[in-house]
């Protein structure tokens, strides 16, 4: 079933690919986006398969979506990231959502300098009026944006920078930063951020009108590159973990609860059976040159729909109910028969006892 769907999706992607390419240009200063890919990312209910360790062999049966990476601020097909498309996969286990991003790239890692390492971000719509373009698209400037003036334009962002993150280790929400009530991560820079526009972007819990220490970093994640060989786990002293420039693929894995305890409109909330709006971004130090914040690639010039599929919608899952029902019915029948036998034997015994004589068992 799953295989068939993946296959159908691959065919659809292959057919739609050339026409469905993200075509956009700047028209008299106005943003214009023809995001004709029509791709919907499906997060199916597949419990118990994903370990968030940066290694992606556990994702092999999950359907994939492939996106060309175009410069986010100038989505011109001529400037596509030249090492290949980004593959995105998502699943959920009924409680957590899992995401995998995969992109080809020669190995680049400079300890302590994130801008000389690759970096990825996921962005989700929170407010109903939050546009993909300009991270929510609130018209206010940095001096006037507040949770009131930009209400309805909130987007949720997870950003993972690699400069201090050891491959295969888990980063993101941790007890020390979460005790302080912010979306930060002092260990690996996998941060939980929200924004109203590119100039009004804050760690969860921080805002221009005051900080609220009830926030948390709800994300966790890990990274890996196919040129790395791991025997018993890397430590910081192993940095840079592999030699510079090796051909291969970067893998990023993330998890987050479907629902968070956010009360400030700073986290997207995911619902099984409903769709969310998503985008993904990628930064890479081209020719070893450090990247800067706005120079990133994006998977589309508009939101991509992400469907959280209910476990009950899979026929195989429904069928699982019947053998269990049969077993219950059988055990009920069995206990009724046993109960009747017990009464019968008890009755016979009480009659025997009334006579007060010992009667051998074989006479019963
Ligand atoms: C979104 O925009 C519409 C139309 O401008 C408006 O009616 C609605 O109240 C807005 N929603 C929020 C949450 O601000
Ligand atoms: C919020 O917290 C940050 C970091 O601790 C601090 O720099 C800022 O001044 C705080 N803002 C307010 C309004 O208290
Ligand atoms: C806006 O943020 C401030 C400071 O965190 C908070 O006190 C206030 O309740 C928030 N307002 C809304 C409408 O969420």
From TrEMBL:
Q: Where is the signal peptide?
A: 1-24
Keyword field: Electron transport, Heme, Iron, Membrane, Metal-binding, Signal, Transmembrane, Transmembrane helix, Transport
- Gene3D superfamilies from the xrefs? 2.60.40.1190
Q: Transmembrane ranges?
A: 326-345
CDD domains per UniProt: DOMON_like
Q: Per the record, a Pfam family?
A: EB_dh
Molecular function terms from GO: heme binding; metal ion binding
Q: Which residues form the Cytochrome c-552/DMSO reductase-like haem-binding domain?
A: 56-298
* UniProt superkingdom: Eukaryota
Protein name stated in the entry: Cytochrome c-552/DMSO reductase-like haem-binding domain-containing protein
Query: Which species is this record about?
Result: Sesamum angolense
